[in-house]
Amino acid sequence: xxxxxxxxxxxxxxxxxxxxxxxxxxxxxxxxxxxxxxxxxxxxxxxxxxxxxxxxxxxxxxxxxxxxxxxxxxxxxxxxxxxxxxxxxxxxxxxxxxxxxxxxxxxxxxxxxxxxxxxxxxxxxxxxxxxxxxxxxxxxxxxxxxxxxxxxxxxxxxxxxxxxxxxxxxxxxxxxxxxxxxxxxxxxxxxxxxxxxxxxxxxxxxxxxxxxxxxxxxxxxxxxxxxxxxxxxxxxxxxxxxxxxxxxxxxxxxxxxxxxxxxxxxxxxxxxxxxxxxxxxxxxxxxxxxxxxxxxxxxxxxxxxxxxxxxxxxxxxxxxxxxxxxxxxxxxxxxxxxxxxxxxxxxxxxxxxxxxxxxxxxxxxxxxxxx
Length: 371
Prior knowledge:
- The chain has 371 residues and is of the alpha/beta class.
- The chain has helices at residues 3-13, 73-84, 95-98, 105-119, 138-147, 164-172, 188-195, 208-225, 238-245, 250-259, 266-277, 311-320, 346-364; strands at 26-33, 43-50, 57-62, 87-93, 130-134, 155-158, 297-302, 326-331.
- The protein folds into 2 domains: 3-163 and 285-364, Rossmann fold (3-Layer(aba) Sandwich), CATH 3.40.50.1820; 184-277, no CATH class.
- The protein is built from 13 helices and 8 strands.
- The mean pLDDT is 91.
């Protein structure tokens, strides 16, 4: 067990850590990854490495559905913490996910990132890299683990999902449809973005040009609201949505305001779009590929996650268990992309700290398998 790495991770990822501070002894650089064989695209990645200690392992860090990817300050900080613990960390900027789209192209983009990490001159050649994903990064990570498992040591999935439709319904639900649990009110536009091919004249969308215009408006809304917790309080996002909507016309403007939850009624529209989609999204479910995963998988999920419900990790556990070594760690200390704090009684806190230690040990062991 990598005791020193676990200790360094605990220093920065425990509930006592300041979420705005990060280790300073880390080097960060942008890596251009050229197009490869079999149509793999040219992409960029952010590489992090320790500046003052040896590199003892490597990690492929997979972003979630976010327009900043590894440039998101939260993911940047997390990558720095991993590098501080001794890892060479490569986090590919996945063009598909940067546009908030869930498309098959993300698989080739992530595989290009894996190839770049395997070829990196500073990667320890005596160890296989680990892979860790955040949120919606779970789907491409698990699919690549099935496709390229021989190239990986371990896989850690934080806040992942099994059923795409069920996850979307949680994201756009309210307390009554989510068993009283909170959801992030800012995520509906990302859901709608992925359903645009199945929306039409009733939503003010007469052509693909209209859909593209609405997609860009919703991406702008997300860039102005995501990562700002205050936007979730007292509908603070409303003026932002109204300012963007002012540049749209007629039915499209009205629909945009519904998609951003300024006006009610987006839920039935999404249900109708999902019905029209038929089996279009079936490919997203990673579970059919699990028979090809033979590396250890650790699933971690925050029970207060307001984007992807923790039951999704339980579904992943059930599907993975027949095929590979898998464990599930549920925690109340970490939410979707942040530390939630320690609002627990003594007994509950003791259990949470045990879970935290197990999570940190899993991170410290990501690259333990010998090549």
